[in-house]
Amino acid sequence: MRKFSVLLMCLVLFGSLLSACGGAPKNSGEGAKGTAGNTSGDSGGNAGAGGEAGDITQRKVTLKIHYPLPDETTLRKQEDDKIARFQAKYPNVTIVKDDWDYDVNEIGAKMASNEAPTFYNTWATEAQLLVERGWVADITDLWNNWEYKDEMNPVLQNQFMVDGKVYGITQNGYVTSTVINKKLLDDKGVPMPAFDWTWDDMYNVAKGTADPKKGISGIAPMGKGNEAGWNWTNFLFEAGGDIQTSEGGKLTAVFNSEAGVKALDFYKKLRWEANAIPQDWALGWGDAISSFKQGRTAMVIAGAFDVIQAALNEGGMKPEDVIAYPMPAAEKGGKHYGILGGNYLVINPNATKDEQEMAFRYITFDYFTDDALKSVEDTIKARKDEGKYYIPTPLEYFSEDSEYAAKVKAIYDKYDNVYKYDPQLFSLLEGKPEAQFGTQDYYATMSNVVQESFSKKGTDSKKQLDTAAKYVQENFFDKAPQQ
Questions:
Q1: How confident is the model at residue 331 (pLDDT cuts 50, 70, 90)?
Q2: How far apart are CA 218 and CA 270, in angstroms?
């Protein structure tokens, strides 16, 4: 796995949200043309990135774009500003807003009915699935003709490169972290752990801060939905385990290993020995983060940006009390592995060539631009006027050693309402990518194991994992296409 120390990068235009879903039916909409609702007429479909069939700016093109959700008011304002600037440069383009948020249970139907946007958001885990089922366009030619391709963050961008071809454009990313409520530790007289901490340190903090009678937990591991399996997998990685192996094109489930048993036993120790998890432990992603921002748990496991944003700007917590840590190592000197994930924009393969090219231009319109830098600074100022904080996302679309990264950091340094991560965090973060096939199915299966472990005392971890691995192998990994 690749180790990296990242600068404090910012979320320029899009929020970061990780949620997990199940499988989707295979698309049967082969041969559909054009974006749903597109009445643009002749689109000059032979025009590529170089515009060889004429000037694309002289032809009418309609884009159904990915638009932020209704409650993301700040992001919507930023997107509206981007739309206005894009149409000023490309008056031939009609923009249709679509706030559909990627759902693996819905994407097949969207594609089959030709209702999917011209481009849509998705996550790092989905690359193999979307490519295999033909639900993303191959944008290699557009990518190769783009002047900034070599300045993109390779750790993130490589997640959507399959067999040497490019299928998506990274927005931002994260390495799963643990965020700690320092005030709860101070109130209980529990010392803050070292950043180079271990499972034993996490256990001691969780046990020391838990106060079940007051409804306060020491840690709130996610206990329902696929996110429960996602949370647990960080501990599998830290114990030295993996989800799957690939040999001779065959995928094999290996999470029922000694490392898997060790990780599951640690979860049970937090539940049954320390009594440190919430009494109502069936928390989804949003539930766990809400618990943290309301001061009802001392620790939560997620992308640091999401937790800190909620804690400071929604929960009214103070920056000095919200500290992002790497995931703990299983033991001293071990790896601080956290799942490496990210958010991507991908282009609809049913769109015409002109639509695909304009979608690419729209997605990358503010990348590496002065307008984007201005947007960052304007957002920071707006947050300051509102009495709120600006939270950088730890991993951005651009490479940390790029000239653009230095410009972003210079803006951050000018303002006191920009959240500052402790530099020790980045020296210890260790990102490990998720499995590239059947990940969501695996998470769903492991969520059942986590729930059983939290609800029944004395379960046999090895037996639980063997049963889960057999199910995942037979129902998902054995059905994977040959690699």
A1: very high
A2: 9
* Cα torsion through 9, 15, 17, 22, rounded to 10: -120
Give residue-wise pLDDT tens across range 81-118.
Answer: 999 999 999 999 999 999 999 988 899 999 999 999 99
Cα gap 481→134, rounded to integer Å? 13
Contact in structure between 394 and 357 (CB atoms under 8 Å): no
340 forms beta bridges with 175, 433
Segment 204-214 mean pLDDT:
97
What is the distance of C-alpha 123 from the center of its chain?
A: 6
**In this model, does residue 22 exceed pLDDT 70?**
no
Neighbour tally for 459: CB within 10 Å? 15
Quote the pLDDT of residue 296. 98
Q: Which amino acid is at 183?
A: K
The torsion angles phi and psi of 112, rounded to 5 degrees, stand at -65, -35
* Tokens linked to 307: 């937790």
Question: Cα separations (Å) of 268 from 113, 331, 425?
Answer: 45, 17, 27
Half-sphere exposure of 141 (CA within 13 A, CB side): 11
Q: Distance between CA 8 and CA 286 in Å, rounded?
A: 24
Task: With CA atoms as reference, report the closest residue to 355 among 37, 43, 146.
Answer: 43
CA 54/CA 477 separation, integer angstroms: 46
413 within 8 A of 166, measured Cβ to Cβ: no
As given in the structure block, the two tokens for residue 312 are 């400071």
Q: What percent of the chain has pLDDT over 70?
A: 88
Distance separating alpha carbons of residues 110 and 349, to the nearest angstrom = 12
Least confident of 13-22, 268-277, 360-369: 13-22
User: 337-372 pLDDT, tens per residue?
Assistant: 999 988 899 999 999 999 999 999 999 999 999 988
**What percentage of the chain exceeds 90 in pLDDT?**
74
- Give yes or no for a contact between 47 and 55, defined as CB atoms under 8 angstroms apart: no
pTM above the 0.90 mark? no
Strand-strand pairing, 93-98 and 61-66: parallel
Q: Which two tokens stand for residue 385?
A: 């006027």
The CA angle 336-228-261, to the nearest 5 degrees, is 60
To the nearest 10 degrees (0 to 180), the angle between helices 304-313 and 285-293 is 40
In what helix (H) or strand (E) does residue 452 lie, and over which residues does it extend?
Answer: helix 439-455
Distance CA 455, CA 102 (A): 31
Q: Which of 288, 269, 298, 303 has its CA nearest to residue 228?
A: 288
> Residue 53: what pLDDT?
53
